[in-house]
Design goal:
The protein is α+β, with helices and mostly antiparallel strands. Helices cover 56% and strands 13% of the residues. A 7-stranded mixed β-sheet has the order 2-1-3-7-6-5-4, with helices on both faces.
Length: 373
C-alpha cells in the first residue's frame, strides 16, 4: 500500500472519546533538569537514527548529523526559557520575532514565513471531565504547539500540560515511507492531530449542551428554582468562546497550506492539508452553532424565569385580595366609636365571621377558576 493511502490511517488517531479526551500530560523530562528538550532525533529515508548509526543527544549534534549525511532533524521542546531556546535559535537560524512568540506563548493561531522557515502556531484543546456541570465547571483547557518547519528540520515547542506529541512521533516512526517526505509530513501530522482533538472536544461539549437543554425545557421539580440554569449556560458560553478562539483563526492558515504552493511543503503532502482544512471548517461551524444554540437556551431560560415570577406575583396578588376582605371588615369594626351599628347586637359576631368566610371563599373560587391560584 502506498504512502498516500496509508497517510490517514497512520496520522489520524482514534476519535473515540475515551482515548482522545484523556490525553494527559506525560512528564518526558526530569523536573530537576535544566534542558527543555524532550526529544531529539534525526531521520534519514524515513527512519530514525539508532545507536548503531550514531544518535544525537543535543540539537547541535542533530544538525551536524543532518549536514553530514542528509535527512532532517525533529526536536521537541516543552516550555523552554529564553536562555534554553537561544542556542537552538542561533543554530537553526530562527527569526527573533518567531522565537519570542515561541518562548512567551499565548499566541493566536497563525502561519508566518520567515525566509526559509515556516512558523505555525496551533491552539490545543483538552476536554476536562466532570461528574456534574456547574456554574463554575471548567470544560476545556487550552495549550499551544508552535512548529518551526525548515528544509531539513522541524522544531516543536509545546506549552501547557496536555497535547503531548510523543504518541504522534511514535506513529510516524512506524511509517518510514511517510517520514521520508520530510518536515512537511510532520507539520501535516501535527495539524491533523490538533484538529482531531477539536473534533473529539466538540462532541463532548455537544453532550453538555444537550444535557443543559433537556434540563431547561423539562418540567421543573416542585420547589426547584426556575432560572437557576442561567449560570451553567453562561459558563458553557464562556468555554465555547475559548474553543472558538482556538478554532476560527486556524482556518485561514490551513487553507493557505492546502491551496498556495510552498517550497517547504511537499506537493504530495499539500493536498492532505485540504482534508485538515475541511475538518477544521466543520468544527468551526459546530462551534458557531454551539454559541447560537446557547443564546437561544439562555433566552428561553430567562423567559421561563420571567413567566415563573409572573405566576408567583399573581398568586401573591390573589392571596392579598382574599386577605383584604377580613382586613377591611375587622378594620371597620375595630374603630372605637360608641354609636356603631350592630355593635351591641347578639348575633353580630357570628354574622360578620360568616360574611367574611363566604366572601373569601367566593373570591378564592373565582381566582382558582381563572388560573390565578
Amino acid at each position: 500500500m502506498s504512502m498516500i493511502r496509508d497517510l490517514r490511517a497512520v496520522v489520524r488517531p482514534s476519535l473515540r472519546r475515551n482515548t482522545t479526551l484523556h490525553n494527559s500530560y506525560d512528564a518526558t523530562r526530569d523536573p530537576s533538569a535544566s534542558s527543555a528538550v524532550v526529544d531529539c532525533a534525526v531521520y534519514r529515508d524515513g527512519r530514525r537514527l539508532t545507536e548503531v548509526d550514531g544518535t544525537c543527544r543535543t540539537p547541535r549534534e542533530a544538525m551536524l548529523r543532518v549536514r553530514e549525511g542528509g535527512g532532517f532533524a525533529w526536536i521537541g521542546l516543552h516550555e523552554p526559557t529564553e536562555e534554553e531556546f537561544a542556542g537552538i535559535a542561533r543554530e537553526f537560524g530562527l527569526h527573533p520575532l518567531a522565537v519570542e512568540d515561541a518562548v512567551h506563548a499565548h499566541q493566536r493561531p497563525k502561519l508566518e514565513r520567515y525566509d526559509d522557515t515556516l512558523f505555525t502556531v496551533f491552539k490545543t484543546i483538552h476536554y476536562v471531565e466532570h461528574t456534574e456541570l456547574t456554574a463554575t465547571s471548567e470544560l476545556v483547557e487550552t495549550g499551544e504547539v508552535m512548529c518551526f518547519t525548515g528544509r531539513d528540520f522541524v522544531i516543536t515547542v509545546r506549552h501547557g500540560g496536555h497535547g503531548s506529541l510523543r504518541a504522534l512521533r511514535h506513529r510516524l516512526e512506524e511509517d518510514p515511507e511517510l517520514l521520508a517526505k520530510g518536515p512537511s509530513a510532520v507539520l501535516h501530522s501535527i495539524a491533523d492531530h490538533v484538529v482531531d482533538g477539536y473534533i473529539a472536544v466538540a462532541g463532548a461539549v455537544q453532550e453538555d449542551i444537550d444535557e443543559v437543554e433537556i434540563e431547561v425545557f423539562s418540567t421543573p421539580d416542585k420547589g426547584s428554582s426556575r432560572g437557576s440554569d442561567a449560570g451553567r449556560i453562561y459558563q458553557l458560553k464562556r468555554e465555547v468562546l475559548e474553543f472558538k478562539r482556538a478554532v476560527s483563526p486556524l482556518l485561514r492558515p490551513m487553507q493557505l497550506l492546502s491551496e498556495r504552493p510552498m517550497r517547504l511543503i511537499d506537493p504530495d503532502i499539500q493536498k492532505y492539508f485540504r482534508d485538515v482544512a475541511d475538518h477544521l471548517a466543520r468544527v468551526q461551524e459546530e462551534v458557531i452553532g454551539f454559541d447560537e444554540l446557547l443564546n437561544s437556551i439562555l433566552q428561553a431560560n430567562l423567559a421561563q424565569a420571567t413567566v415563573a415570577q409572573n405566576e408567583d406575583m399573581r398568586k401573591i396578588t390573589s392571596w392579598a385580595a382574599i386577605i383584604a376582605v377580613p382586613t377591611m371588615i375587622c378594620g371597620v369594626y375595630g374603630m372605637n366609636f360608641t354609636n356603631m351599628p350592630e355593635v351591641h347586637w347578639r348575633y353580630g359576631y357570628p354574622m360578620v365571621m360568616g360574611v367574611i368566610g363566604v366572601v373569601c371563599f367566593s373570591i378564592h373560587r373565582m381566582l382558582k377558576r381563572n388560573g390565578w391560584l
